Amino acid sequence: MRVRKMSALVGAALILGCCLILYLMMDLAVFPSDIHDNKWVQFEGRLKQLEVDLHRHHETVGKLKHTIKQLISNSPAPYDYQQHSNHTVVTTSATTPEAGADVSCSIQFKSVPRADIQMLDVYKELKFDNIDGGAWKQGWNVEISGQEWDKHNKLKVFVVPHSHNDPGWIKTFEDYYHSQTRNILNNMVNKLSEDPRRKFIWAEISFFSLWWDEIPIETKEQVKKLVSDGQLEIVTGGWVMNDEANTHYFSMLLQMMEGHQWLLSQLEFKPRNSWSIDPFGQSPTMAYLLKRMGLENLLIQRVHYSVKKYLAHNKNLEFRWRQLWDGNGSTDLFTHMMPFYSYDIPHTCGPDPKICCQFDFRRLPGFGISCPWKVPPQVIKEQNVAHRAGMLLEQYRKKAQLYRTNVILAPLGDDFRYDHASEWDAQYNNYQKIFDYWNSKPHLYVEAQFGTLNDYFNAVREERKPERFPSLSGDFFTYADRDDHYWSGYYTSRPFYKRMDRVLLTYIRATELLFSLGWSTKQSSSDWLLAPESGLTKLLSDARRSLSLFQHHDAITGTAKDHVVEDYAKKMLEAINGMQHVMQQAAHFLLSSPRVPYQPNSEFVYFDLDDIRKHHYSIPEKTVVFVGEGLESQRIVLYNSLTWRRQELVTLRVSTPNVKVTNTAGTAVTSQISPVFQELSDVIADSRYDITFMADVPPLGLTTYFLHAVRPAQKIENVMSRIKLLNFVGYVPRVEGFEYIEVADEAKEFSIHNDHLSVAFSEQGLLKAVTLKDSGVTVPLHLDFARYQARQGQERSGAYLFLPDREAETVAWDSSPVRILEGPLFSQVHMHLPGVQHTVTLVNTEGADSLGLQVQNVVDISDQVNCELTMRISSSIKNGDDFYTDLNGLQIIRRKRFSKLPLQANYYPLPTMAFIQDQKFRFTIVTAQPLGVGSLKEGQIEVMQDRRLNQDDNRGLGQGVTDNKPLPATFRLILEQRQPSCQGTATDHPAGLSTIAAHVASLSLLHPLFHLLWLGKTSDNLESHYAPVTQEPGCDIHVVMLHTFPLQSKNAAGLIVHRQETDPCFPLEQFPLSNGLLNVSSLVPTQFGNTMKEATLSFLEEGKTVQKNTARPVCHMEMSAFLFPR
């Protein structure tokens, strides 16, 4: 039987191979001008053409394309799984990949990957001169001769009606739905059903799902028919149209997955085209995620007007967007860039908005809005159709001159359009009359119709294969819509809620991991966890949707009305509380004794999460753990959501200094006791102390420690922090344990130390220099704070725009007291200056928390007027005008400071890290919250901390930013010495790589150890630890998510992993890397069965079934997704 099967398989393979070769030969013979160096890329293009012509199901073609893509590689040799030779590498239990696995990786850092257009080079070339172009103010006078078209070369026009619905901006998400969006969607069903020629596209699934839950079954069936007939297309399919500057790739992925899974379950629809018209700048991370989700085309709009003009001049507004590291084009996503100022109708039909506005029939007299150019639209009649159609056709023809095909896309919509039935009739009826006129006049050589994105992209691909468009790499930040109005303010606006976003991200990821491990580890007794009546899966779903909603481009950006921001925050706080509940439930279940039948109580609170948030605007507080008479000991469970062992400091707040920490073996753990100071003072609080110890927690695991009350005279392994107060005059009350405090009434320089660093501070208590003890080299690192003032005039800084009047002025203040704590586990410096409580902590462990300095700034500028506060670090590093920032936590891009651009144009998003470097050193700043960053002078990095602005910046919000909340902003500053004569990335590479230290520091900062404070009796029958991982995969492999599917799904869970490439010139032995092979069973050995399926990133498409315990390759910079069947 095996021989027969093998013979059949070999025979089928030979027949398929012959067909492919014959097809390729015919392709080369018929299309000799289209031959490219990589014939397999060419062949993939032919498959895409077949897809268009035959309208086959995407699932089937996708499998064929996946097979072909395995052959696409510019490198003839298999990829070397070993990391760079000077990195420490760990191995998995299997050392060879599964037979037949795709082993070609597209990563290219040693040399510059080929791209026809590289955006950093474009910026070097552009003059940014902003010449008035006439009717197309930011372009030029586009001319046509009229000879460009004939009967063999017709202009194909697709008018695409749409309505852009913000899930919160001027109104809350729910208010928008009830006042406008519900009407739009109801009208959509009625009006599309009236005429099969009508088309419409929709993007925001958050609104669509809300509407779906309240419409009758008959209407749902109508919608499904409209989708299947191609009249209605769901584009992108995300929960929202997410921001691309401040967002983390986890949240981008999550909100897309939330929308895609809803579409799959409710409509059995899989999006293929993405529509991104309103995010304020565009990131290649989004293109990468879309590509790996199975989408094929992308449309973008908000790009710097000079960049649009540059690309339009060369007909490069359509391109294959390629990732910065991609050496063979495997990440290419076909992208259409809209050419003009906005996505509204006046700026989408052609270069003259005065004319285009006359074809927005919502602006007809009597509809309530008019054209700013004072020339209204006219109802199309038999008497005027020839003239009016001629005016519009001229605009379409001019627009066609900016692209490489004769296919034109003309969006027809704006914000919250089509909420009245009268607009549907006005737009569709008048345009249909124009289409009928054109289509009845063969000599015009035009074919026009309503269309969807799918109609448009299919027509483009039919005329010209994607491989014949240029490739482009880079990003589209920082966005400017006109003049010097750069949208770099929103990188920082409302930073309190940007931090809250990251906290919720952390809770959702960690909770779902533990929850999924919980029900899959003890499947015989875990049905209650997944049961709807427990309410736990609903809490998870609600939290995912709250975080997804906040990824909207007017939410995480801080660009919504005050009451809308509060609405988002309340939803996020509720989600955080929900995740705390689910996490402690899952932890209790996993630690419950297998010898005793588990008695579930899904409403019971077993643990306190040591993270109290009283209000949506409150700084989190720690729980005071009481130990003493009657409470001699307390159980503390620690949870590590990362895939490597964590040996890091844990700080708990206790009621007495007479306490010790023990591990599960009863061994005392060295601890450091510190006082707690009253807020905004140097007075020690009574009956509150911090005890800090080094914890050891397994990957994806739980472990237990105990706090014990001890008698004051009892000898324990504790050390009291030494306290110094410099430049302090006054009385210092003593408290128990801290009877002696060193006080100096004058300011002086000082330093703190650990085993690796010596850190010097100025008399004012600010960072001055860092000495690397291994080499003895000292590098100046001067930290200070500076303030920008808003420029005067009508155009001023606001929620979106950063328009400073001049360079920042250093904050000056009268010398204030400096507080120093020192001990064996950590040392800390604390001081106050106007608007900031500034704390620097130096940890003395071998863990990720010891990699550099931790800085926390509690920022409060609520008493300022038009103030933008920044933290600057100045060094002796000779980085020239180059610096590096990350994109969404996924990749790092090279930036260049341009003197030809204004200051605000040299500010960029800082989602997780930025660095400067020279041939000797690298300085990295890692952030726990997204903010704005710049390197405005050599050797310097500055990070905006908060903005308070008293006026609107004329971008529609209608208010300033004055709802500032005290923000605990946290950073890690990492100084590293480069290995001599080492090359990481190529000298002129447009991307960068984080060091291992920066990578693990960022992960540990974003995903801290969770403290679960047991609320029951210490003697309760709980296991001391849970450790599912049998072998660590390496610090470069990160579990992005372990997602639980609803019970009705055929799949039980989905796993996504990411492998980060790091710079080989900065090795770190205590954090070993993988060899590029991942054995999933080493992460989840007893969970989810023995097999899994390959999948796309949002789990829409399923691939082949593979064994869970077989090592599989994971390429650097790539993500891999797997589905575990139920």
From TrEMBL:
PROSITE patterns membership: PROKAR_LIPOPROTEIN
Q: Does the keyword Metal-binding apply?
A: yes
Which pathway does it take part in? Protein modification; protein glycosylation
Name of the protein described by the UniProt record:
Alpha-mannosidase
Q: Which of UniProt's keywords are assigned here? A: Disulfide bond, Glycosidase, Golgi apparatus, Hydrolase, Membrane, Metal-binding, Signal-anchor, Transmembrane, Transmembrane helix, Zinc
- What species is this protein from? Zootermopsis nevadensis (Dampwood termite)
Query: Does Flavoprotein appear among the keywords?
Result: no
Cofactor annotation remark: Binds 1 zinc ion per subunit.
